[in-house]
Amino acid sequence: MNTIGETAIAISDSLVLSLVLKATLITALALISARMARKNCASVRHLLLITVFIVLLALPFGASLVPSIPIAVASVQPTAASMPRAQVPDAVAANTVNAAAAESQTVNRQRSVPVSTLMLSLWAAGVVVVLLPITAGLWQLRRIRRLGVRWLHGQRVVRELADRVGIKREIDVILHDDVPGPMTCRILHPAIVCSPDVQLWTDAELERALLHELEHIRRADCFTHGLARLVCAVYWFHPLVWMSWRRLGLEAERACDDAVLRRAEATEYADQLVRLARRIKANTRRPLLAMVSRSDLTVRIASVLDTKQRRGRPGPTFTAAAMTAAALLIAAIAPLRAVSTISQAPDQQRLEFEVTR
Protein backbone atom coordinates (compact mmCIF):
# COMPACT_ATOMS: atom_id res chain seq x y z
CA MET A 1 0.00 0.00 0.00
CA ASN A 2 2.87 2.36 0.76
CA THR A 3 4.23 1.78 -2.77
CA ILE A 4 0.84 2.57 -4.32
CA GLY A 5 0.55 5.75 -2.29
CA GLU A 6 4.03 6.90 -3.25
CA THR A 7 3.30 6.18 -6.93
CA ALA A 8 0.06 8.21 -6.80
CA ILE A 9 1.87 11.13 -5.17
CA ALA A 10 4.70 10.98 -7.72
CA ILE A 11 2.20 11.03 -10.60
CA SER A 12 0.31 13.98 -9.08
CA ASP A 13 3.54 15.92 -8.66
CA SER A 14 4.22 15.63 -12.41
CA LEU A 15 1.78 17.51 -14.66
CA VAL A 16 2.63 15.31 -17.65
CA LEU A 17 2.14 12.01 -15.82
CA SER A 18 -1.05 13.29 -14.22
CA LEU A 19 -2.49 14.26 -17.63
CA VAL A 20 -1.51 10.89 -19.09
CA LEU A 21 -3.29 9.00 -16.32
CA LYS A 22 -6.44 11.15 -16.52
CA ALA A 23 -6.50 10.96 -20.33
CA THR A 24 -6.17 7.18 -20.14
CA LEU A 25 -9.14 6.87 -17.81
CA ILE A 26 -11.29 9.23 -19.91
CA THR A 27 -10.53 7.69 -23.31
CA ALA A 28 -10.88 4.14 -22.00
CA LEU A 29 -14.28 5.01 -20.57
CA ALA A 30 -15.29 6.63 -23.88
CA LEU A 31 -14.26 3.65 -26.01
CA ILE A 32 -16.06 1.25 -23.68
CA SER A 33 -19.19 3.43 -23.79
CA ALA A 34 -19.05 3.63 -27.60
CA ARG A 35 -18.74 -0.14 -27.72
CA MET A 36 -21.72 -0.59 -25.44
CA ALA A 37 -23.74 1.83 -27.62
CA ARG A 38 -22.98 -0.03 -30.86
CA LYS A 39 -26.68 -0.70 -31.43
CA ASN A 40 -27.53 2.96 -30.98
CA CYS A 41 -27.39 5.68 -33.64
CA ALA A 42 -23.99 6.53 -35.11
CA SER A 43 -24.64 10.22 -34.42
CA VAL A 44 -25.06 9.41 -30.71
CA ARG A 45 -21.71 7.61 -30.60
CA HIS A 46 -20.10 10.46 -32.51
CA LEU A 47 -21.43 13.01 -30.03
CA LEU A 48 -20.11 10.87 -27.18
CA LEU A 49 -16.63 10.75 -28.71
CA ILE A 50 -16.45 14.44 -29.61
CA THR A 51 -17.43 15.23 -26.04
CA VAL A 52 -14.42 13.24 -24.86
CA PHE A 53 -12.12 15.20 -27.19
CA ILE A 54 -13.47 18.43 -25.74
CA VAL A 55 -12.67 17.12 -22.27
CA LEU A 56 -9.15 16.14 -23.35
CA LEU A 57 -8.58 19.58 -24.85
CA ALA A 58 -9.71 21.35 -21.69
CA LEU A 59 -7.90 18.96 -19.34
CA PRO A 60 -4.45 20.70 -19.36
CA PHE A 61 -6.06 24.11 -18.76
CA GLY A 62 -8.20 22.76 -15.94
CA ALA A 63 -5.24 21.02 -14.32
CA SER A 64 -3.07 24.15 -14.39
CA LEU A 65 -5.63 26.91 -13.77
CA VAL A 66 -8.30 25.42 -11.50
CA PRO A 67 -7.40 25.20 -7.78
CA SER A 68 -6.33 21.69 -6.85
CA ILE A 69 -8.62 19.31 -5.00
CA PRO A 70 -6.34 17.30 -2.70
CA ILE A 71 -6.92 13.59 -2.13
CA ALA A 72 -5.20 12.33 1.00
CA VAL A 73 -3.02 9.29 0.41
CA ALA A 74 -1.48 7.56 3.42
CA SER A 75 2.27 7.30 3.27
CA VAL A 76 4.18 5.43 6.00
CA GLN A 77 7.38 7.08 7.06
CA PRO A 78 10.00 4.71 8.43
CA THR A 79 10.87 5.45 12.02
CA ALA A 80 14.28 5.57 13.52
CA ALA A 81 13.69 2.05 14.84
CA SER A 82 14.45 0.68 11.39
CA MET A 83 17.90 2.30 11.52
CA PRO A 84 20.82 0.28 12.87
CA ARG A 85 22.09 0.98 16.33
CA ALA A 86 25.24 3.07 16.30
CA GLN A 87 27.71 4.38 18.80
CA VAL A 88 28.60 7.89 17.65
CA PRO A 89 29.04 11.21 19.35
CA ASP A 90 26.11 13.63 19.32
CA ALA A 91 27.93 16.28 17.28
CA VAL A 92 29.20 13.79 14.73
CA ALA A 93 25.76 12.22 14.32
CA ALA A 94 24.08 15.59 13.81
CA ASN A 95 26.68 16.75 11.28
CA THR A 96 26.44 13.48 9.37
CA VAL A 97 22.65 13.64 9.15
CA ASN A 98 22.64 17.28 8.03
CA ALA A 99 25.32 16.66 5.41
CA ALA A 100 23.46 13.64 4.03
CA ALA A 101 20.19 15.59 3.84
CA ALA A 102 21.83 18.51 2.07
CA GLU A 103 23.59 16.21 -0.39
CA SER A 104 20.32 14.35 -1.09
CA GLN A 105 18.46 17.61 -1.80
CA THR A 106 21.26 18.80 -4.11
CA VAL A 107 21.25 15.53 -6.06
CA ASN A 108 17.45 15.61 -6.37
CA ARG A 109 17.50 19.17 -7.72
CA GLN A 110 20.22 18.30 -10.21
CA ARG A 111 18.29 15.29 -11.44
CA SER A 112 14.80 16.81 -11.58
CA VAL A 113 15.60 19.77 -13.83
CA PRO A 114 17.17 17.81 -16.71
CA VAL A 115 14.47 15.12 -16.64
CA SER A 116 11.61 17.62 -16.75
CA THR A 117 13.32 19.59 -19.50
CA LEU A 118 13.91 16.41 -21.49
CA MET A 119 10.26 15.35 -21.16
CA LEU A 120 9.03 18.79 -22.23
CA SER A 121 11.39 18.82 -25.22
CA LEU A 122 10.31 15.33 -26.27
CA TRP A 123 6.65 16.26 -25.97
CA ALA A 124 7.13 19.47 -28.01
CA ALA A 125 9.04 17.59 -30.71
CA GLY A 126 6.21 15.06 -30.97
CA VAL A 127 3.62 17.82 -31.29
CA VAL A 128 5.60 19.40 -34.14
CA VAL A 129 5.94 16.07 -35.94
CA VAL A 130 2.20 15.38 -35.71
CA LEU A 131 1.31 18.92 -36.81
CA LEU A 132 3.44 18.66 -39.95
CA PRO A 133 1.02 16.43 -41.94
CA ILE A 134 -1.90 18.56 -40.72
CA THR A 135 -0.21 21.69 -42.08
CA ALA A 136 0.63 19.89 -45.32
CA GLY A 137 -2.95 18.68 -45.63
CA LEU A 138 -4.35 22.19 -45.16
CA TRP A 139 -1.99 23.50 -47.82
CA GLN A 140 -3.06 20.64 -50.12
CA LEU A 141 -6.75 21.43 -49.62
CA ARG A 142 -6.07 25.11 -50.26
CA ARG A 143 -4.31 24.18 -53.51
CA ILE A 144 -7.18 21.90 -54.56
CA ARG A 145 -9.70 24.62 -53.81
CA ARG A 146 -7.69 27.22 -55.77
CA LEU A 147 -6.91 25.06 -58.83
CA GLY A 148 -10.20 23.18 -59.02
CA VAL A 149 -12.80 23.90 -61.69
CA ARG A 150 -16.23 25.00 -60.53
CA TRP A 151 -18.99 22.64 -61.65
CA LEU A 152 -22.12 24.66 -62.31
CA HIS A 153 -24.49 21.72 -62.77
CA GLY A 154 -23.35 20.17 -59.50
CA GLN A 155 -23.77 23.49 -57.75
CA ARG A 156 -27.39 23.72 -58.91
CA VAL A 157 -28.06 20.19 -57.63
CA VAL A 158 -26.44 21.04 -54.30
CA ARG A 159 -28.54 24.16 -53.96
CA GLU A 160 -31.75 22.16 -54.47
CA LEU A 161 -30.69 19.47 -52.01
CA ALA A 162 -29.51 22.04 -49.46
CA ASP A 163 -32.91 23.71 -49.51
CA ARG A 164 -34.51 20.32 -48.99
CA VAL A 165 -32.42 19.47 -45.90
CA GLY A 166 -32.52 23.00 -44.44
CA ILE A 167 -29.00 24.32 -45.21
CA LYS A 168 -29.00 27.99 -46.18
CA ARG A 169 -25.26 28.51 -46.70
CA GLU A 170 -23.62 29.04 -50.08
CA ILE A 171 -21.72 25.90 -51.08
CA ASP A 172 -19.34 25.57 -54.01
CA VAL A 173 -18.90 22.37 -56.03
CA ILE A 174 -15.41 21.89 -57.49
CA LEU A 175 -13.87 19.28 -59.78
CA HIS A 176 -10.25 18.18 -59.25
CA ASP A 177 -8.20 15.20 -60.43
CA ASP A 178 -6.50 14.57 -57.07
CA VAL A 179 -9.62 13.38 -55.21
CA PRO A 180 -10.94 9.83 -55.74
CA GLY A 181 -14.42 10.66 -54.48
CA PRO A 182 -16.55 13.51 -53.14
CA MET A 183 -15.20 15.24 -50.04
CA THR A 184 -15.97 18.41 -48.09
CA CYS A 185 -13.42 21.04 -47.16
CA ARG A 186 -13.35 24.41 -45.39
CA ILE A 187 -15.47 25.55 -42.47
CA LEU A 188 -16.64 29.13 -43.03
CA HIS A 189 -17.12 28.85 -46.80
CA PRO A 190 -17.55 25.11 -47.42
CA ALA A 191 -16.98 23.44 -50.75
CA ILE A 192 -17.63 19.94 -52.06
CA VAL A 193 -14.75 18.63 -54.16
CA CYS A 194 -15.41 15.81 -56.63
CA SER A 195 -13.39 13.88 -59.18
CA PRO A 196 -14.12 14.78 -62.83
CA ASP A 197 -15.75 11.39 -63.50
CA VAL A 198 -18.65 12.44 -61.27
CA GLN A 199 -20.07 14.10 -64.39
CA LEU A 200 -20.76 10.59 -65.74
CA TRP A 201 -22.75 9.48 -62.71
CA THR A 202 -26.50 8.98 -62.80
CA ASP A 203 -28.73 11.53 -61.11
CA ALA A 204 -29.48 9.09 -58.28
CA GLU A 205 -25.77 8.41 -57.61
CA LEU A 206 -24.98 12.11 -57.66
CA GLU A 207 -27.83 12.90 -55.28
CA ARG A 208 -26.76 10.24 -52.77
CA ALA A 209 -23.14 11.41 -52.79
CA LEU A 210 -24.06 15.08 -52.42
CA LEU A 211 -26.54 14.32 -49.62
CA HIS A 212 -23.73 12.61 -47.74
CA GLU A 213 -21.44 15.63 -48.11
CA LEU A 214 -24.21 18.07 -47.19
CA GLU A 215 -24.73 16.16 -43.96
CA HIS A 216 -21.02 16.66 -43.21
CA ILE A 217 -21.54 20.39 -43.69
CA ARG A 218 -24.67 20.48 -41.57
CA ARG A 219 -22.91 18.63 -38.75
CA ALA A 220 -19.73 20.81 -39.04
CA ASP A 221 -17.62 17.64 -39.27
CA CYS A 222 -14.68 19.55 -40.78
CA PHE A 223 -14.44 21.59 -37.59
CA THR A 224 -14.84 18.67 -35.18
CA HIS A 225 -12.43 16.51 -37.17
CA GLY A 226 -9.81 19.27 -37.15
CA LEU A 227 -10.33 19.82 -33.43
CA ALA A 228 -9.80 16.12 -32.79
CA ARG A 229 -6.58 16.15 -34.84
CA LEU A 230 -5.25 19.00 -32.69
CA VAL A 231 -6.04 17.00 -29.56
CA CYS A 232 -4.19 14.05 -31.07
CA ALA A 233 -1.21 16.34 -31.60
CA VAL A 234 -1.24 17.28 -27.91
CA TYR A 235 -1.55 13.62 -26.83
CA TRP A 236 0.56 12.22 -29.69
CA PHE A 237 2.07 9.56 -27.43
CA HIS A 238 -1.25 8.09 -26.30
CA PRO A 239 -2.60 5.16 -28.36
CA LEU A 240 -6.10 5.35 -26.89
CA VAL A 241 -6.47 8.94 -28.11
CA TRP A 242 -5.59 7.86 -31.66
CA MET A 243 -8.04 4.96 -31.41
CA SER A 244 -10.75 7.41 -30.34
CA TRP A 245 -9.89 9.73 -33.24
CA ARG A 246 -10.22 6.95 -35.81
CA ARG A 247 -13.50 5.82 -34.25
CA LEU A 248 -14.71 9.43 -34.33
CA GLY A 249 -14.11 9.68 -38.10
CA LEU A 250 -15.86 6.37 -38.71
CA GLU A 251 -18.92 7.36 -36.70
CA ALA A 252 -19.10 10.68 -38.56
CA GLU A 253 -19.21 8.83 -41.89
CA ARG A 254 -21.83 6.39 -40.61
CA ALA A 255 -23.97 9.26 -39.32
CA CYS A 256 -23.88 10.85 -42.79
CA ASP A 257 -24.73 7.47 -44.35
CA ASP A 258 -27.80 7.34 -42.10
CA ALA A 259 -28.89 10.72 -43.47
CA VAL A 260 -28.62 9.37 -47.03
CA LEU A 261 -30.63 6.25 -46.17
CA ARG A 262 -33.57 8.43 -45.14
CA ARG A 263 -33.96 9.27 -48.86
CA ALA A 264 -32.31 6.34 -50.68
CA GLU A 265 -32.38 2.56 -51.02
CA ALA A 266 -29.84 0.74 -48.84
CA THR A 267 -28.68 -1.82 -51.45
CA GLU A 268 -28.12 0.83 -54.13
CA TYR A 269 -26.17 3.01 -51.74
CA ALA A 270 -24.07 0.02 -50.61
CA ASP A 271 -23.21 -0.73 -54.25
CA GLN A 272 -22.13 2.87 -54.67
CA LEU A 273 -19.85 2.61 -51.62
CA VAL A 274 -18.28 -0.55 -53.08
CA ARG A 275 -17.45 1.32 -56.29
CA LEU A 276 -16.03 4.17 -54.21
CA ALA A 277 -13.77 1.71 -52.38
CA ARG A 278 -12.41 0.49 -55.72
CA ARG A 279 -11.66 4.05 -56.84
CA ILE A 280 -9.86 4.80 -53.58
CA LYS A 281 -7.75 1.65 -54.00
CA ALA A 282 -6.81 2.60 -57.56
CA ASN A 283 -6.07 6.25 -56.71
CA THR A 284 -2.82 6.90 -54.82
CA ARG A 285 -3.28 10.67 -54.52
CA ARG A 286 -5.79 10.82 -51.71
CA PRO A 287 -5.79 14.14 -49.77
CA LEU A 288 -3.98 13.96 -46.43
CA LEU A 289 -6.96 15.24 -44.43
CA ALA A 290 -9.63 13.15 -46.13
CA MET A 291 -11.98 11.56 -43.61
CA VAL A 292 -12.96 8.51 -45.68
CA SER A 293 -10.68 5.48 -45.94
CA ARG A 294 -10.98 2.17 -47.74
CA SER A 295 -10.82 0.11 -44.54
CA ASP A 296 -13.69 2.08 -42.98
CA LEU A 297 -15.85 1.54 -46.08
CA THR A 298 -16.18 -2.16 -45.21
CA VAL A 299 -17.69 -1.29 -41.83
CA ARG A 300 -19.91 1.36 -43.43
CA ILE A 301 -21.26 -1.03 -46.05
CA ALA A 302 -22.11 -3.61 -43.39
CA SER A 303 -23.85 -0.91 -41.34
CA VAL A 304 -25.83 0.31 -44.38
CA LEU A 305 -27.13 -3.20 -45.02
CA ASP A 306 -27.92 -3.88 -41.35
CA THR A 307 -31.68 -3.53 -41.05
CA LYS A 308 -31.53 -3.73 -37.23
CA GLN A 309 -29.21 -0.75 -36.92
CA ARG A 310 -30.86 2.28 -35.35
CA ARG A 311 -30.51 5.53 -37.29
CA GLY A 312 -31.26 9.17 -36.58
CA ARG A 313 -29.91 12.24 -34.85
CA PRO A 314 -29.42 12.97 -31.15
CA GLY A 315 -32.09 15.25 -29.77
CA PRO A 316 -31.38 18.58 -28.06
CA THR A 317 -31.90 17.00 -24.64
CA PHE A 318 -29.24 14.37 -25.23
CA THR A 319 -26.86 16.98 -26.69
CA ALA A 320 -27.31 19.25 -23.67
CA ALA A 321 -26.81 16.31 -21.33
CA ALA A 322 -23.57 15.35 -23.10
CA MET A 323 -22.19 18.89 -22.88
CA THR A 324 -23.17 19.10 -19.20
CA ALA A 325 -21.48 15.77 -18.51
CA ALA A 326 -18.33 17.04 -20.24
CA ALA A 327 -18.26 20.17 -18.07
CA LEU A 328 -18.79 18.13 -14.91
CA LEU A 329 -16.08 15.67 -15.94
CA ILE A 330 -13.59 18.49 -16.46
CA ALA A 331 -14.49 20.09 -13.12
CA ALA A 332 -14.30 16.77 -11.28
CA ILE A 333 -11.15 15.20 -12.76
CA ALA A 334 -8.87 18.05 -13.84
CA PRO A 335 -8.06 19.52 -10.39
CA LEU A 336 -7.62 16.19 -8.56
CA ARG A 337 -4.21 15.81 -6.92
CA ALA A 338 -2.89 13.19 -4.52
CA VAL A 339 -1.19 14.54 -1.40
CA SER A 340 0.66 12.66 1.31
CA THR A 341 -0.52 12.19 4.88
CA ILE A 342 2.60 10.90 6.63
CA SER A 343 2.13 8.44 9.45
CA GLN A 344 4.75 6.83 11.64
CA ALA A 345 5.36 3.13 11.35
CA PRO A 346 5.01 1.13 14.55
CA ASP A 347 8.18 0.89 16.53
CA GLN A 348 9.86 -2.42 16.04
CA GLN A 349 13.04 -1.56 17.83
CA ARG A 350 13.83 1.22 20.18
CA LEU A 351 16.40 3.67 18.91
CA GLU A 352 19.37 3.81 21.23
CA PHE A 353 22.48 5.90 20.95
CA GLU A 354 25.31 5.24 23.33
CA VAL A 355 27.04 8.57 23.62
CA THR A 356 30.75 8.49 24.16
CA ARG A 357 32.01 11.04 26.51
What does this structure look like?
This protein is of the alpha/beta class. It has one domain. Helices cover 65% and strands 9% of the residues. The protein is built from 11 helices and 6 strands. It has helices at residues 2-13, 15-36, 42-65, 90-147, 152-165, 203-219, 221-234, 239-261, 266-282, 294-305, 316-333; strands spanning 69-77, 149-150, 172-175, 183-185, 191-194, 336-344. A hairpin with a 5-residue loop joins strand 4 and strand 5. The chain starts with a helix and ends in a 13-residue tail after the last strand. Mean pLDDT is 78; it is low at 347-357.
Brief characterization of the structure:
With 357 residues, the chain is an alpha/beta fold.
Over all CA atoms, what is the radius of gyration?
A: 29 Å
In percent terms, what proportion of residues is strand?
5-15%
In terms of per-residue confidence, which ranges show pLDDT below 50 for 5 or more consecutive residues?
347-357
Biggest β-sheet strands, sense, barrel = 4 strands, mixed
Mean pLDDT: 78
Inertia-based shape: globular
Structural class: alpha/beta
Main traits of this protein?
alpha/beta, two-stranded parallel ribbon, disordered C terminus, 357 residues, 4-stranded mixed sheet
